[in-house]
Design goal:
By secondary structure, this protein is of the alpha+beta class. It has one domain. 45% of the residues lie in helices and 17% in strands. Strands 1-2-3-4 form a 4-stranded antiparallel sheet. The chain is globular and about 40 Å long.
């Protein structure tokens, strides 16, 4: 899966003033389509480069990040959540916790079924 590059990000002030008002409704709609509910208490959100870029930009805005090392750390952290073409990653949200993990850990690698014992 394509990762987000540093040159795709803008400073937090530009993001807040110019990009955020246009980006927020687009990304929220995108996330809605990428969310899979599994029963009443479990939800998976499959991220992509656009949703990760949005998350990084929002972290930069909220934390008013300007240090390149902090921005790069945030970018590296969120890019890890994208997984690969062969092993997508998803955010898991339940009534008790919210974590991220590889979808293959829940659905098995290519079988379409959850692994036994989970």
């Amino acid at each position: 899966m394509r990762q987000v590059r540093r040159d795709e990000l803008v400073d937090y002030a530009t993001w807040a003033e110019e990009a955020l008002p246009m980006e927020r409704p687009v990304i929220l709609a995108m996330k809605k389509r990428r969310r899979v509910h599994v029963g009443p208490k479990l939800t998976f959100l499959f991220e992509n480069a656009d949703t990760v870029r949005y998350q990084v930009q929002e972290m930069m805005r909220v934390e008013r990040m300007v240090k390149e090392s902090a921005i790069q750390h945030e970018l590296d952290t969120y890019n890890e959540l994208l997984g690969t073409d062969r092993a997508p990653s998803a955010a898991r949200s339940s009534s008790r916790s919210r974590t991220r993990s590889s979808a293959s850990a829940y659905f098995g690698s290519g079988s379409g079924c959850p692994p036994t014992g989970t």
